[in-house]
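Box 3.1 A note on notation
Throughout this textbook, protein chains are presented in two layers. The first layer is the amino acid sequence; the second is a C-alpha cell string describing backbone geometry. Keep the layers aligned when reading.
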Amino acid sequence: MKILSVSTATNHLSIALNEGQQVIVEKNERDERNHSEHLDPLIDEILKENKLTLKDIDRFAVAIGPGSYTGLRIGITTVKMFASILDKEVVGISTLQALAKGVAGDALVIAGLDARNDNYFAGGYKSGDIPENVIPDGHYNIDALIKAIQEYAAENEVKKIVFVGSGLEKQDEKIKALNIPYEYGDDDQNVIRAGLIGKLAVLATPIDPDKLLPRYLRRTQAEVDWHKKTGKPFEPDSHYVEEV
C-alpha cells in the first residue's frame, strides 16, 4: 500500500512516501514557515522521483494536531482535497503519537510542543510499534503535566521517561523531582517525521475526508471571542478540548 504522508503541524515541514511500513523517501524542511508555498512542490518532487502520480497513492495521511493553527489547516486541506478528488483513503494521525513513535525501547514517552508561558500541548504514550496513549493529549500547564505523570507512575511501572518535542528541557528541575530515570529526545526525535506518520497510517482507520478535522486542543482566540459575543455554545465536532 502506497501512503503519502504530510506534517505541517509545526515549523518543520515533512513529507514522505511509504510502501506499507517501509519509508521509501522522506523530505524535510527545518525552521521553514512557508508551508503553503513549499508543500505542493515537495510532493510533486517525491512523486516524480519515484515515477508516480497522485493517482498511484492508495492512502493519504496527515498530522491533525496539536500544532500551529495555520500550519495544520494547510496540511489537512491539501490532503482532504487529494482524497476527495481522487476518491482515495485518508487518515489523520495525532502529532503527539507521531513524536512518540520515534522512541524505541521500554519507556513512557511524554510528547510535547511548547505552547509558551509554561504550557504545553502534550500527551503520554507507552512506546511501541503503535504507541498507546496513556496520558490524554491535552493543553497542560507544566504543573498539571507533572501531576499527570506522577499519577500514572503511581499505578504503573515506569522504568524510564523519554521527553520528546519542544521546550520540555526548560522544565528540567521539575522533571528531575519526579525521581524517575529520564532523558530528552535527540534532534531527529524532537521533530515530527512524515515517515513515522505513514507507518502509523498503515493500521489506522480511514475516514470520510469531510470529517477530517484538526485537533487543536485549545480554543482559538477567534472562537473564544465569538462565544463571548454571541453566547452560543461551541460546536460539538470542533475537537477543541479546553482553553487555558
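Helices lie at 35-49, 69-86, 95-101, 142-155, 172-176, 194-201, 221-230. The CA atoms of residues 101 and 131 lie 6 Å apart.
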